[in-house]
Automatic annotation (TrEMBL):
UniProt subcellular location: Membrane
Protein's UniProt name: Transmembrane 4 L six family member 18
Keywords, alphabetical: Membrane, Transmembrane, Transmembrane helix
Species whose genome carries this gene: Otolemur garnettii (Small-eared galago)
Main location: membrane
Family listed: Belongs to the L6 tetraspanin family.
GO annotation, cellular component aspect: membrane
Transmembrane region(s): 48-70, 91-116, 159-182
Membrane topology field: Multi-pass membrane protein
Length: 197
């Protein structure tokens, strides 16, 4: 019962994390609350991968919903025997937790790449990725940030929001890994065999 409660709580945590990922990703489209840069496609290319909206957002909400259903004992049994039903639920839970790891892992990687690349901004040389060749060194050197003349404070905007996305998706990865560990422990500790007879 303790495993089940723990698994259900972890699945519930995925929901607010997914909603926050969607909100943060949407904010990346509007530096300083301005819509003109998105309309004229003057944003970093990693924003258009929809990592927070689709992968750590909508798809993770679906994963969380399925995992919550699987933890519910009152839902429809997938086969006649109770032990058989538990085996299928365990297998499905591992599969959907693994999908959650893939979805949130994608968001984590894309957000990290966006953070290291830096923003697409207007410099003295025109619109460009001002920090693309710095291998992320600009992140620790705020004196370089004034190279971006427009949008105002776009470097801080990108650093903060991409960092939040990395944190949110990282938490999702950890939660899904814990869920896989819980399900595997049920199998390995002899609660029931995964082999369906």
């Amino acid at each position: 019962m303790g495993f089940r409660k723990c698994g259900g709580c972890l699945s519930c945590l995925l929901i607010p994390l997914a909603l926050w990922s969607m909100i943060v990703n949407v904010l990346l489209y509007f530096p300083n609350g301005q819509t003109s840069y998105a309309a004229s496609n003057k944003l970093t290319n990693y924003v258009w991968y929809f990592e927070g909206i689709c992968f750590s957002g909508v798809l993770m909400l679906i994963v969380a919903g399925v995992l919550l259903l699987l933890e519910n004992d009152n839902n429809y049994k997938c086969c006649q025997g109770d032990n058989c039903s538990k085996k299928y639920k365990t297998l499905l839970s591992i599969i959907f937790s693994a999908l959650g790891i893939a979805f949130s892992g994608y968001c984590l990687v894309i957000s990290a790449l966006g953070l290291v690349q830096g923003p697409y901004c207007h410099t003295l040389n025109g619109w460009e990725y001002a920090f693309e060749g710095t291998a992320g060194r600009f992140l620790a050197d705020s004196s370089m940030w004034n190279q971006c003349l427009e949008p105002a404070h776009v470097v801080e905007w990108n650093i903060i929001l991409f960092s939040i996305l990395i944190s949110l998706s990282g938490l999702q990865v950890i939660i899904c890994l814990i869920r896989v560990a819980i399900q595997l422990s049920r199998i390995l500790c002899g609660s029931y065999s995964l082999i369906i007879q």
